[in-house]
């Protein structure tokens, strides 16, 4: 019975046959006459986690300040990150949002789309919240009112 060899050991065997004593380096990857170190997966993971955390913190700070222009810049950065990490659906939606502001919508609507995204209930700097969060808060209050209006339905009634 013949032994089946995988593609990687076959290349190593070919190099040993052609060039003699060939040693494959475990810690490095060879590519076109240069030796590249292998990726440090733990470092890459923590670096991307830290970068994403700082990006979310910047998003929250931008929303609290109500800065639509900086939010637009952050969406551009998020588009690059989503594309580089192969998250095509997120990249598509961010690209569509940016295209609406830059090219599709008229100038007046694009300005409203960029700046009318925040709500400040109490006034003052740094007290803004996003309109999505405001809508969630309104829905919670409405559901509380609906629960308070009537009793629970039972089969006897």
Question: Brief overview, please?
Answer:
This protein has helices at residues 7-19, 41-65, 68-84, 88-104, 107-115, 131-149; strands spanning 28-31, 34-37, 118-119, 129-130. It has 157 residues and is mainly alpha-helical. The protein has a domain at 52-149.
Chart the SSEs and their pairings.
Elements: H1 7-19, E1 28-31, E2 34-37, H2 41-65, H3 68-84, H4 88-104, H5 107-115, E3 118-119, E4 129-130, H6 131-149
Antiparallel strand pairs: 1-2, 3-4
Helix content: 55-70%
Q: Which quaternary structure do these chains form?
A: single chain
The tally of helices reads: 6
According to DSSP, the number of beta strands is 4
Average predicted local confidence, pLDDT: 83
Distance between the termini: 79 Å
Instruction: Give Rg in angstroms.
Output: 28 Å
